[in-house]
Amino acid sequence: MAGPKGQRYGAKSGLREGAPGMIRDRLKRLAHEALGRAFDERDASRIRVYTAPWIIDGDGVAIPDGAVVFDADGYVLASGAASDILVDFRWAQRAELGGILLPGLVNAHAQLELGAVDEALPGGLGLRRKLRALREIRRATDELDPTSREAAIRLAVRQSVAAGNAIVGDRTDSLRAVPAMAREGLYGCVFHEIREFSARRAAKAIAAAAVDRARIVPWPEGIRYRLAPHSLYSTADGVMKDLFSRALEAGAVTAVRLAEAEEEMDFLSAEGAGKALIEAASTFLEEFVPPGTDPLSYLEELGGLNERVMLVHMNTATRSMVRKASAAGSPLVLTPRSALHDSGKLPPLVSFLEEGCRIALGTDSPASAPDGSVLREAAELHSAFPEVPAMVLLKAAMQGGADALGIDSVGSFEPGSAPGLLHVDTDGFVPNDPCGWLLRAGTPDLNWLMRPAPPGEVRAA
Which H/E stretch holds residue 138? Predict the structure, then answer.
């Protein structure tokens, strides 16, 4: 709702993913009551106003001479022009800062368990050779002693936090990163991948995943667990149908790698290429008949083309595929640095935006991207597509990722959210275009002033 001076007050549920209307309305009411208590009690020890020359809100707004108000639990009470906010919260604590303030970032596609990778794979391998190389990396990771492996994963998690990530969508075979995520306060979704092309073996993989999940007791607060197919070329079609159906029934989000490389197109249209790709993915081939269609059409046949299934990569998407994804409301998670490393090409960003697609960003694995910074992913796109406004790309790195993962308690300074607060010190310089400056600044230091609160869980998938 609007505050006395037009600034944003109020709440949102923080529980978009499958939240029943009654729960959402109750949470909104409680958040409004919390704001009311703040004004009634005026306890300065619990309320702080942060001001800066620029506030970048993840929903597509840059506010000059802005302010954002947090309570002691990390929830946003209001945001807007400092001249208005400071009048209404004149009794609260105040932190006057230079530079830029923004909410925590969202990395919608990471692979933290590959933290032991100390250097990237050679570029331009192509999908089949990359899959074989990743198989060797995973084998080497399995052979590490547990202490070394845990230390490498924890370092990857810490580096993700240092890169400004409040939330991650972590793709995993082993759940090994979950304890480190819990210890370091890195929240989000873990997508436990099923990658068997044999229906019988896939059923065993799902059972083994349940055992892995049950071993982590208690399950950490703020980390959602989801089963997810790996890709069209590595997961049995019947299993994909089942996993997509589960997500829809639970009102949950899942994800699949799609249109990652030209070899995937060949896989769907030519039997020889299909067999080679399946074998490179380290799955057992019983029988496969290429459907003779494009990835989006095949995914639609499997029940996976909808707003609950994140489509990761989309590097080789055609315009017709883009239109189909947009019409279905499917969130797209782009990994531009990985795409450049693997093929020298970027996904068709302009087509995605022209067709009104939902866009998020991810970093993929350290085998093809040097760090876990989605800000650098946005910068890569900004350099290649200067016609796209910088704020559009920053929104993809914040609210776009939160939207894709179904976690709306992060990604913006919407009142009632708990996105964390990042500060970028510009050494006294006040840029005219703070969004463009951030994406052209190389690797600006991101400092956490407040870490995000753990997002709530609605239902298990």
Answer: helix 127-143
pLDDT, mean of residues 357-365 = 97
Spatial separation of the C-alpha atoms in residues 92 and 447, rounded to whole Å: 23
Closest CA to 58 of 407, 428, 402: 402
Of 344, 328, 325, residue with least CA distance to 336: 344
Contacts of 404 (CB under 8 A, 6+ apart): 108, 169, 253, 310, 331, 332, 333, 358, 360
pLDDT in tens, 208-260: 999 999 999 999 999 999 999 999 988 989 999 999 999 999 999 999 999 99
Which range of residues forms the domain containing residue 348?
105-405
- Residue 352: CB atoms within 10 A of its CB come to 20
pLDDT digits 0-9 by tens, 71-95: 999 999 999 999 999 999 999 999 9
Minimal CA–CA distance to 11: which of 315, 413, 461? 413
> Do 110 and 88 reside in the same domain of the chain?
no
Q: Rounded CA gap, 326 and 318, in Å?
A: 12
Instruction: Supply 436's token pair.
Output: 């463009």
Instruction: Work out the pLDDT band at 275, boundaries 50, 70, 90.
Output: low
Buried b (16+ CB within 10 A) or exposed e, 316-336: bbeeebbbbbbebebbbbbbb
2 in any annotated domain: no
101-110, 161-170, 266-275, 415-424: least confident range = 266-275
Q: Which of 93-107, 187-201, 273-287 has the lowest mean pLDDT?
A: 273-287
The span from the CA of 174 to the CA of 249, in Å, is 25
Place of tokens 């019988």: 200
Answer yes or no: do 16 and 147 share one domain: no
Nearest to 371 by CA among 125, 115, 138: 115
* pLDDT at residue 127, as a whole number: 86
Q: Based on the fold, state whether residues 232 and 194 are members of the same structural domain.
A: yes
Question: Are 408 and 15 spatial neighbours (Cβ–Cβ below 8 Å)?
Answer: yes
Residues 319, 196 within the same domain: yes
